[in-house]
Structure formats: structure tokens, C-alpha cells
Amino acid sequence: MIRHPQILNRQHSSLLIVDVQQKINAVMLYREQVVNGIIRLVKGCRILGVPIFITEQYPQGLGHTEPEILAALAGEAPLQKMTFSCCGANGLVEKLQGRGVRQIVVTGIECHVCVQQTALDLLANGFQVHIPRDAVSSRKALDYEAALERLALAGAVPTTVETVLFELMERADTPEFKEVSKLIK
User: Fold this and answer.
1) pLDDT tens string 119-155
2) What angle separates helix 161-169 from helix 175-184, to the nearest 10 degrees?
3) What confidence score (pLDDT) does residue 70 get?
4) pLDDT digits (tens, 9 = 90+) for 8-55
5) In the predicted model, what is the mean pLDDT of the chain?
6) Which residues, including other chains, have CB under 8 Å from residue 119's CB and lie 6 or more apart?
7) φ, ψ for residue 158, nearest 5 deg
8) Residue 60: per-residue pLDDT
9) Residue tagged active-site, from 45, 81, 121, 134
10) How many angstroms separate the most distant Cα atoms in the chain?
């Protein structure tokens, strides 16, 4: 069977969590939805063996990643960056390429700044980018909507947390299905 090339394949996918830091997340729209969605994605990716990367933008000023996300990551250290695009984080693109990643699920904040610049740079570097609408946010609805529209026009795949998890699972007759499906309910 031939599968559509935009369907996520866990053998070639990765999750990227962009700058969900306490001080800035406090003023985001949908902040609880975003944190909960990212935690579900982290847990699902752990179960399915999908690599996870996380960044922090200028933590001295913006604080560190939300504690609930760090707890779900169980010790994964965020890459520090000063560039808005995560592609400027030391070695991130090389790490993705080295793992054979071709599809990246990009989550985090702010949708119209760091998420957008990261996604556009990843697209320019040949990656397929998936943006779960319920795992990204901005302070203002206009910025959030404009970013999602621009990213879709640029070739990013709009999606949701639940869609990502079901695509990564692919099948219902696996041991992982029961574990991951509990995250969705």
C-alpha cells in the first residue's frame, strides 16, 4: 500500500518543543491547552520511540521550560538559543539530519515568532513540518492565526495533537496503541 507522503512515519519523525518557558507562557492564549498537548505528545513519542528535542530562548530573561513539560521529558536538557529560529541552536539541524529525521512536529511559543521562523527554516532545509494547532500559541489571536496561515501557505502541514499521535501509531493492533490511546481520552 502506498501512503500519502504527509502522513507522519515514526521511523523518520521527531518532536520539537520550542521555548515553552514560564515567564512568557504566562501571557499566552491557550496556555493550558498547549502545555497539556505537548505533554501528551511527549508521552506518546516516548512510547513510540520518536526522538524529542526542546529549546529555550534566553532563559535568563524568560525563565525555564514549564515544569510539567520538563517532568514529562524526564531529564531531557533544553538546547539554549539566542536566535528566534531553533535552526540557530547549536547543532540542532545536524542532530536531526544525523538521526534520519525527515518529518518534524513543531510545537511551542510564540507561533508567529520562534515557531514560525523555525518552521520556515526547517522547510528551507528540506524537512516536512507539521504544526499541531492545539500545541502552539501566541499572545494575540491575530498573530496566532496569521502565523498558522503563513505556515500552511509555505508548505507546513496543519494538524492536531490527536492526529499526530494516530499517524505515528499507524495501527491499532500494537501494544503501543492501548498506551497511546489512553493519552487521547
Assistant:
1) 999 999 999 999 999 999 999 999 999 999 999 999 9
2) 180
3) 92
4) 999 999 999 999 999 999 999 999 999 999 999 999 999 999 999 999
5) 94
6) 106, 129, 131, 151, 154, 156
7) -75, 140
8) 84
9) 81
10) 50
Distances 127 to 12, 14, 102, 147, 154 between C-alpha atoms, Å:
10, 11, 5, 18, 12
The grid coordinates listed for 140 are: 494575540
Residue whose cell numbers read 529560529: 85
Q: What is the DSSP code string of 51-105? A: -EEEEEE-HHHH-PBPHHHHHHHTTPPPEEESSSSGGGSTTHHHHHHHTT--EEE
* Catalytic site includes residue 86: no
Active site residue 81: yes
Residue 105 · residue 96 · CB < 8 Å:
no
Nearest to 20 by CA among 72, 94, 98: 72
Residue of 45, 87, 114, 121 with catalytic role: 114
**Are residues 19 and 63 in contact, defined by beta-carbon separation less than 8 angstroms?**
no
140 is an active site residue:
no
